[in-house]
Amino acid sequence: MTFFVPDTAQLPALKKTPLRAEVADADTWDLTPLFADDDAWEEEFQALQSDYAGIDKYRGRVASSLEVFSEALEFEKDIDQRIETLHQYVALRTTEDSADSKSLAREARFQSALVHIGEAFSFLAPEIQAVPDAEFAAFLANPLLAEWQVSLTKLRRLKPHTLTPSEERLLALGSAAIGGHQETFSQLTNVDMKFGTLKDGKGRKVELTQSSFSSLLVQKDPSVRREAFHQFYAEFADHKFTLASSLASSVRADVFHARARNYPSAIDSALFRDDVPLSVYDNLIAAVRKNLPALYKYFGLRKRLLGLEEIHHYDTYVPLVSEIETDIPWDGAVDSVLAAVRPLGGDYVETLGHGLRDGRWCDRYENKGKRSGAFSYGAYASPPYIMMNYKQDVFSDVYTLAHEAGHSMHTWYSKNAQSYQDYHYPIFLAEVASTFNEMLLTKHLLDGTADPRMRAYLISRQIDDLRGTLYRQTMFAEFEKNIHAIEEAGEALTLDSMQAAYRELLAAYFGPDFAIDAELDLECLRIPHFYNAFYVYKYATGISAAVALSEQVLTSGDASRYLGFLRSGGSKFPIETLAEAGVDMRTSDPVDSALALFSKRVDELEEILA
User: Fold this and answer.
1) Measured on CA atoms in the order 205, 210, 214, 215, is the torsion positive or negative?
2) pTM of structure
3) 171-217 pLDDT, tens per residue?
4) How far, in Å, CA of 532 to CA of 422, rounded?
5) Which of 235, 404, 478, 487 is an active site residue?
6) What single-letter DSSP state applies at residue 323?
């Protein structure tokens, strides 16, 4: 790892973003474990379109005998696996170049086919649920269904919430229409809304967009941050009634689905599938609220270090320690990540090292048309692929690699330990393994440097991660709960009521010494996750579990329980999976531990930067 101060006189000419065809094969993912080429995908897609209709022979007779019951399950599993493999290839090929017309057409045809397949299989779950309890218990006890014990038990829990085949068909057919508000929100905010232009900190005229907004909020010049904030929200103010209507429609759809499926509330509906008690959700909010003084202290530290007379929301993203300038090539980043995860043992390190180097799990660098950001996408029949846009002069990309590698190794261990029907781990667990790796990386890097500026950067980064993931997402979670309660109580869910609910939370979470701009009330109208209700709390519980697990492994030197967590996949409900790993999310202890780490890091940062 080399630190440097660039000599602008020696900087090379601006590097041109290569076309996809110009990228070396070694720097791209190898998709041949999925399909040899596009023609092979097309052949399998056509075969699937012919084969899935075979499910119809089980219609009305799923429970006619144990053998037929087993055959229907195996047929569905075969189709599901084929869909998963086809979908992974489609998604990854589209990611490579989002402007490629062939990839876009392939994706559109595949999505269209999924609607028809979903309709064809819509009778299966209701027929399984209709099997009398005694007969179902006898089926389940038979060795022929040994590998289906877990998934069938989970499915049977849904019996009170599964409708008749005709009703299920109607819900399947109406899903796109009922969920149209999400598309409306996306088109309005990403296409129709125009935010104008402004000058950045260097006097350059830049277009203000959803993407550039976050970049402008990290600029050192407070006037740039302030102007970007007010100009950005001025556009939201112009569309606030439309946005409020769209969000209200989303909430009403959640309530409709909950009532249609006989749940007491929308939040009960969302938590039921993962068997997460409502107390976990409420304990998270209570624990975070109890520890808000530590967040207030951090905002006070920010205010002092930035030399501000008052601190606003647009002042909370500018780094207190500027990005460390580094020159870390890909192999150096891999070395850092592998060194950080060494406490997890030789098998973990060797498998990940092979995947990131010779196994071509990762599509490493940017090319023209490639999707931005990063992700991990794992499937049962292939390696767990990672998409990156790695830049060796962006230090945070090392963290991104560690994060996505955590997801990939979770998938790797899960699929090698579980049957197909049990390997899918739920979203509740998904962010644990990725954040866990980030915790190990921070520990490794802090142990390896005495440079005060580097230490301040690493600590500040972890503070901001905890603030954004634990405090902020919990505030969002509380807002979601509140607005759904308004709708379920039969009260008016309007722009005014949503803004009032959000304003109360802003006052509570930012504290008495924070200057809350009137426009910030509109933030509740621009969060995409609110269209996937009761999802964001999982970020907060995920990072809390990751902190607890990483402290456990680093303190004890024993990673066996954590590796058992990775292997569990979806074979148990998430609360049980974490409890067996040593983290009980039914108590506030894991959340309290993460909040204590936040408070400790704030004190450390204050001491370093004093």
Assistant:
1) negative
2) 0.89
3) 888 887 888 888 888 889 888 999 999 998 888 898 998 878 988 99
4) 24
5) 404
6) P
